[in-house]
Design brief:
homodimer; 199 residues; mainly alpha; Arc Repressor Mutant, subunit A; Tetracycline Repressor, domain 2; 67% helix; 0% strand
Chain lengths: 199, 199
């Protein structure tokens, strides 16, 4: 692994352990096997490091949905919903999702972070729209779908369901939300109609 | 106005001014025209007060969507989406939505707050499901819709779009998300098909 990979791993570990509000360069250094001075050599501040970390999370996320993928477009979107909304386990939200919720709540007060989250949002919506366009070209999806509109609504729904999963914990309606997203958003993409098959 | 109404107004004002993380009983008292001791007489702590405040916000919200309303069910859901997702103005998120984002991020660490947000979530989803049921009974909506599944997906989508509006500020795709929610979720409720009319 490169030093950068090690730093990203240390940031992930520290974020899970401390949450975003209590994250410090020292907490990240404590998770980093190499020297603290090396960390400071690469990053001036926690804010600086977090922007790179969010970029790194985006790359990892998008690599799961390769543009040149031969996978069925509907299955790709189903997989994205499952990954974002989270597991179907009853053991509550995981630490990283709790930390990212706190981080997102800071964005309105932190311009560099907000700008990185804007870039992440644009890339993710663009990838969703690309999958929809590819589904339309393949004749798999209806040709009267607006890919950008669908991408914005779908991303809102999966992110909203993930946030509820974290905020409401064991009482979150995560499985019902995921089933609803599947039925009302994803099945609506195909020519077979919206709800008939599953009702 | 009753003392309780005055306290709720003072809490709203203090929350808008300070955000949730920096909210104190003193900050609320500063917005309260009556005495600070009266505030402490009614509420033991900030946590205690905030639970009542979230209950109060829920009541205000639900009163906009009266169960016995004669309004068209589709129009009621459209209005709910517009109210939750926020204004179409370019002036960024308002202070109360920023404060509520911070508050929700604290729920995983604050059991009384989490429990109140769970109750709010259940009530709001139940009201959405009631509107859908009423639309089905009136023959306005398709009769193969699962009201609970729809409610969970719709609530995730409108809350997700609102969160993005706050987190991403002026770069949030709020209008596109709202249009997508309308096209892909709301128009799918009617018998006319999902997208034909607007594409």
């Amino acid at each position: 692994m490169t030093t950068d990979d090690d730093i990203m791993d240390a940031t992930f570990a520290a974020l899970c352990k401390h949450g975003y509000a209590d994250l410090t360069m020292q907490a990240i250094a404590d998770e980093f096997e190499k020297s603290k001075s090396l960390l400071h050599y690469h990053y001036d501040s926690k804010e600086d490091l977090i922007v790179t970390f969010m970029e790194h999370l985006l790359e990892n996320f998008l690599s799961e949905f390769d543009e040149d993928s031969d996978d069925d477009p509907l299955e790709q979107l189903q997989r994205m919903a499952e990954i974002v909304v989270g597991s179907d386990e009853d053991d509550g939200p995981d630490d990283v999702h709790m930390a990212l919720l706190g981080l997102r709540a800071q964005a309105p007060y932190d311009e560099a972070l907000r700008e990185q989250l804007v870039r992440n949002d644009q890339h993710i919506r663009e990838r969703i729209a690309d999958i929809v366009r590819s589904g339309i070209e393949q004749g798999r999806f209806r040709d009267d779908i607006d890919p950008e509109q669908f991408a914005a609504a779908f991303r809102s729904a999966i992110e909203g369901a993930q946030s509820h999963d974290v905020i409401l914990g064991p009482d979150a309606p995560t499985e019902t939300a995921l089933a609803g997203i599947e039925t009302f958003l994803l099945e609506g993409l195909t020519d077979d109609g919206t709800v008939e098959q599953t009702a």
